[in-house]
Amino acid sequence: MALSKIRSVRALTARGGGADYHDQGSGHWIDDHIATPMARYPEYRQSRQSFGINVLGTLIVEIEAEDGTVGFAVTTGGAPAAYIVERHLSRFLIGRDPAEYEKIWDQMYFSTQYYGRKGLVINAISGVDLALWDLLGKLRGEPVHALLGGAVRDELQFYATGARPDAAKDLGFIGGKMPLHHGPAEGDEGLARNLSDIGEMRARTGDDFWLMLDCWMALDVNYATRLATRAWHDFGLKWIEEAISPDDYWGYAELKRNVPRGMLVTTGEHEATRWGFRMLLEMDCCDIIQPDVGWCGGITELLKISALADAAGKLVVPHGSSVYSYHFVCTRHNSPFAEFLMMHPDANEVVPMFRPQLLGEPVPERGRLSISALDKPGFGVELNPDVALERPFPSQG
Ligand SMILES: [Mg+2]
């Protein structure tokens, strides 16, 4: 039975946190001397906003059906992604049945392939795809997880990402992932400071707690190997995340061979599509892939990425992604837990990950979330009407 057809597509932008979670005010842990590939330049070492990490802002995609039902999603991409959605991608949606997500995704991907494939364009495609799934769920009166085959467990378990794994332990999370602060340009002194940061946090959490390290692409293979080996033997670090450039598949394969047996190598938040993740899987680059649902191609593509990982015996633990992750993770056996980004400036309180943009965004309690909290049509959230939105490129016609 045909659903109400798509009448209009709107691409909006917003500033100030939300899906562009790096777009925070001063004094936030997420912009406090985090190691990055740009840290080789001293002038860009203290703040990621100094080199422009927050220039894009949030993209909001709204897809309206002829019966007035609106599906929406948020991701990173701002005005440049809004242009792509309004002027290029919307033609593949208007007048179409929202259930045709496979054909729509295929047309969005191959029509932009000559300038797309990864990054901003795939963020835009992801935003459209997630809005389409939200619309489909609302039209069918079902949560997205039900459309994906249903939950395979009754609750989600979370680890927390932020500057305070010790606070995460007190809040009931199963683990804490801390940011790395010093890159290779800060030499052996920086390496020693990194290790002492991990040691200090391990002393605060005690031994019986997952402790992980996020390196945001900042390192090289040799540095990452030295850091991982010491952190494993001295402090029981569980995994080293995104240690090197996402383009360096060969480096990841070497790092995975180098780290101590039992330690996990994770990456993928800046990887996209089934073809990108096929590289990570077939080259044996890591133990856990971490696609961001708003950046990897959306739910339609994540289904394919996840199936590849399942067949390869790898876990899929999406990066951040809030409800777009939760509705997926609960349906897959090879996604046994989820990430929660601690967006409180001090990383010591649970606040909604994409605040202030979503209403009804569920958050874990004592590190857990019942699947019943997701039992609302679509992704189960609404756009906060108090957030200022712009529509920079309204479609002609
Ligand atoms: Mg990360």
Automatic annotation (TrEMBL):
GO terms under biological process: amino acid catabolic process; carbohydrate catabolic process
Site, Increases basicity of active site His: residue positions: D292
Residue stretches making up the Mandelate racemase/muconate lactonizing enzyme C-terminal domain: 155-262
Site keyed Transition state stabilizer: positions: E339
GO MF annotation terms: L-rhamnonate dehydratase activity; magnesium ion binding
PROSITE patterns attached to this UniProt entry: MR_MLE_1
Reactions that this protein is recorded to catalyse: L-rhamnonate = 2-dehydro-3-deoxy-L-rhamnonate + H2O
Entry EC no(s): 4.2.1.90
Residues engaged in binding substrate: H22, R48, E339
Active site: H319 (proton acceptor)
Any Pfam family matching the protein: MR_MLE_N
Cofactor binding comment, as recorded: Binds 1 Mg(2+) ion per subunit.
Function: Catalyzes the dehydration of L-rhamnonate to 2-keto-3-deoxy-L-rhamnonate (KDR).
NCBIfam families linked to this entry: PRK15440.1
PANTHER family, per the entry: ENOLASE SUPERFAMILY, MANDELATE RACEMASE, MITOCHONDRIAL ENOLASE SUPERFAMILY MEMBER 1
Family affiliation: Belongs to the mandelate racemase/muconate lactonizing enzyme family. RhamD subfamily.
Protein name listed in UniProt: L-rhamnonate dehydratase
Organism: Pacificimonas flava
Lineage of source species: Bacteria, Pseudomonadati, Pseudomonadota, Alphaproteobacteria, Sphingomonadales
